[in-house]
């Protein structure tokens, strides 16, 4: 385990101009375990406590309660040791407008103890790997959003950390840059780097992450691999339209069917494994002389998972 | 820690040197005073040669440079909170005091360079200053710079908002400047004001500068200025370092 933490809590008190101070329970008790070499996603709507969680794990905030180990060191007791082992790319990115990517990256490397020559070599290497060698000597402020994001990644990776935190890494990026960044994050996993990222994009969590924690209101509401989560909570959805009534009761009697919902003249049949259940369902309908008008099947999405756990859609919650 | 101070200092100096024009703005205002105001002041004391009038006027301008350039360094660090640079450095094993001290050293370096430019220009206008006295004054300027930039970083990290910092610094710097007797000699001031300025360390800095430029090392203000500003510099530096620790854990 590269991260093994339990019951992390953080409460903020915000002072308002008028009235009593307001207490915000940003994180109410989160347990997180991340395995070495996996891409772990923290998925949730804005304000769910994702950033607070990742900032606690990255030693930027002291937890009010709870603790554990991050990269082999005690999070609360040895933040200095933890910092040697991690890279962190915040939402703002941390790229200085008034100096070049090269000098900033060299400085970051040397703060981590590299010699000048070593830092220069490593800077070249990471810039080449991220495809930003030609930007090395530009001023920070002249870079585009996507370019800055890659420089930020270089700044977080120059010291070869075994653990990298990315807070909303693709927010605001166009599809092209987003796909590139996903590839680069997958490339890190190939090299054995563990990555923890926060996101409020369903497709990103689904496509990029090996395992996920879905958070809402400062607690983890579901955890597992994307396919586990979808399987466990909702499986597949088969949608049927029939000319005659009575099919709903027939389908409910089948042991492989979890739930049937009537939605107008369409039946939504929730099953564990659609591909294998579908032939069974069709045979059952045929046996009862029920004729199909149309048939469809969808995999349950992470949004279905969020919906069943919180009663809201992630799209509405954000 | 010293290695990290050197690293931050080197980085900041290089970044400043990439935009050398900016540091010129810090001395523009005092330079205008030198060119457009000093001749007027000189005429209020008929019979005193212009070079001697400049010798009394220039130390005040140096203190002005110290305030106008060092007191405003906090804006830079607010920018670095906004773009995440400070947060990124906070996650690194960088020594916390070094994050502030590297910047403070850069500020002091810039202040000394700016002071030298101003002194050289004043000399071109005919000022003659006592050389050892001038060097001691530069040392005093360095201490003033540490005080002012420490104060600026402390305030900046406390308010973290450019819109709040700007009026705050104007509010602070205006009376500090007026109560030094830079514009007109304090001997013109009413008694209550003369009593108040005794508590302004910058007044003593200006008085110390005038004495030092004359070559008079016996002036009491020299000791008062050094002692009070070293104490204040230590206080504000401690404040800014503890502020950095607080925002970065």
UniProtKB/TrEMBL annotation, chain A:
Domain ABC transporter: 3-242
A single GO molecular function term of this UniProt record: ATP binding
Gene Ontology terms: cellular component: plasma membrane
Annotated GO biological process: daunorubicin transport; doxorubicin transport; response to antibiotic
Localization terms from the record: Cell membrane
SMART domains linked to this entry: AAA
InterPro entries: AAA+_ATPase, ABC_transporter-like_ATP-bd, ABC_transporter-like_CS, ABC_transporter_ATP-binding, DrrA, DrrA1/2-like_C, P-loop_NTPase
Its membrane topology: Peripheral membrane protein
Alphabetically ordered keywords of this record: Antibiotic resistance, ATP-binding, Nucleotide-binding, Transport
Short name of any one Pfam family annotated for the protein: DrrA1-3_C
Family statement: Belongs to the ABC transporter superfamily. Drug exporter-1 (DrugE1) (TC 3.A.1.105) family.
Protein name listed in UniProt: Daunorubicin resistance protein DrrA family ABC transporter ATP-binding protein
Species in which this protein is naturally found: Sinosporangium siamense
From TrEMBL, chain B:
InterPro entries in the record: ABC2_TM, ABC2_TM_bact-type, ABC_2_transport, Nod_factor_ABC_transporter
One GO cellular component term noted in the UniProt record for this chain: ATP-binding cassette (ABC) transporter complex
UniProt subcellular location: Cell membrane; Membrane
A GO molecular function held by the record: ABC-type transporter activity
The keyword Transmembrane helix belongs to this UniProt entry's keyword annotation: yes
Keywords: Antibiotic resistance, Cell membrane, Membrane, Transmembrane, Transmembrane helix, Transport
Primary localization: membrane
Family recorded in the similarity comment: Belongs to the ABC-2 integral membrane protein family.
Official protein name in the record: Transport permease protein
Lineage of source species: Bacteria, Bacillati, Actinomycetota, Actinomycetes, Streptosporangiales
């Amino acid at each position: 385990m590269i991260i093994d933490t339990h019951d992390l809590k953080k409460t903020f008190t915000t002072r308002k101009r008028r009235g009593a101070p307001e207490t915000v329970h940003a994180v109410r008790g989160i347990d997180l375990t991340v395995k070495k070499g996996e891409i772990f996603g923290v998925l949730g709507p804005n304000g769910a406590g994702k950033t607070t969680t990742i900032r606690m794990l990255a030693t930027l905030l002291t937890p009010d309660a709870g603790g554990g180990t991050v990269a082999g060191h005690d999070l609360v007791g040895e933040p200095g040791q933890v910092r040697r082992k991690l890279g962190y790319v915040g939402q703002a990115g941390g790229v200085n407008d008034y100096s070049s990517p090269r000098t900033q990256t060299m400085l970051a490397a040397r703060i981590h103890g590299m010699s000048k020559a070593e830092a220069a070599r490593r800077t070249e290497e990471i810039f080449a790997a991220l495809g930003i060698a030609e930007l090395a000597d530009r001023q920070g402020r002249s870079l585009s959003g996507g370019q800055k994001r890659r420089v930020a990644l270089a700044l977080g990776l120059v010291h070869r950390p075994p653990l990298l935190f990315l807070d909303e890494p693709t927010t605001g990026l166009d599809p092209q840059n987003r796909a590139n960044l996903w590839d680069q994050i997958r490339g890190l996993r190939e090299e054995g780097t563990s990555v923890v990222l926060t996101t409020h994009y369903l497709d990103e969590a689904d496509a990029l992450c090996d395992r996920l924690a879905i958070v809402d209101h400062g607690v983890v509401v579901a955890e597992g691999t994307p396919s586990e989560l979808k399987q466990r909570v909702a499986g597949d959805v088969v949608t049927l339209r029939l000319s005659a009534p009575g099919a709903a009761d027939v389908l409910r009697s089948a042991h492989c069917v979890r739930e049937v919902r009537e939605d107008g003249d369409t039946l939504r049949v929730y099953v564990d494994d659609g591909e294998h259940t579908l032939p069974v369902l069709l045979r059952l309908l045929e046996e009862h002389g029920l004729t199909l008008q149309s048939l469809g099947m969808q995999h349950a999405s992470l949004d279905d998972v969020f919906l069943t756990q919180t009663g809201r859609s992630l799209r509405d919650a954000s | 820690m010293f290695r990290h101070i050197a690293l931050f200092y080197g980085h900041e100096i290089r970044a400043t040197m990439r935009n050398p024009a900016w540091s010129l703005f810090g001395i523009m205002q005092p330079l205008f005073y030198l060119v457009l105001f000093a001749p007027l002041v000189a005429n209020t004391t008929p019979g005193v040669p212009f070079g001697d009038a400049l010798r009394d006027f220039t130390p005040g301008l140096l203190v002005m440079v110290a305030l106008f350039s060092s007191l405003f360094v906090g804006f830079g660090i607010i920018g670095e909170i906004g773009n995440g640079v400070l947060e990124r450095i906070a996650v690194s094993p960088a020594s916390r005091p070094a994050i502030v001290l590297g910047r403070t050293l850069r500020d002091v370096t810039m202040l000394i360079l700016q002071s030298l430019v101003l002194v050289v220009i004043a000399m071109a206008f005919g000022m003659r200053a006592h050389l050892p006295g001038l060097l001691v004054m530069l040392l005093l300027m360095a201490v003033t710079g540490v005080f002012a930039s420490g104060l600026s970083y402390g305030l900046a990290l406390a308010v973290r908002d450019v819109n709040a910092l700007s009026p705050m610094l104007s509010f602070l710097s205006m009376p500090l400047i007026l109560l030094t007797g830079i514009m007109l000699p304090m001997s013109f001031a009413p008694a209550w004001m003369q009593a108040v300025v005794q508590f302004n360390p910058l007044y003593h800095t200006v008085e110390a500068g005038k004495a030092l430029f004359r070559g008079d090392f016996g002036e009491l203000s020299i000791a008062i200025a050094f002692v009070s500003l070293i104490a204040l510099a230590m206080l504000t530096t401690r404040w800014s370092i503890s502020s950095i620790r607080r925002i970065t854990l």
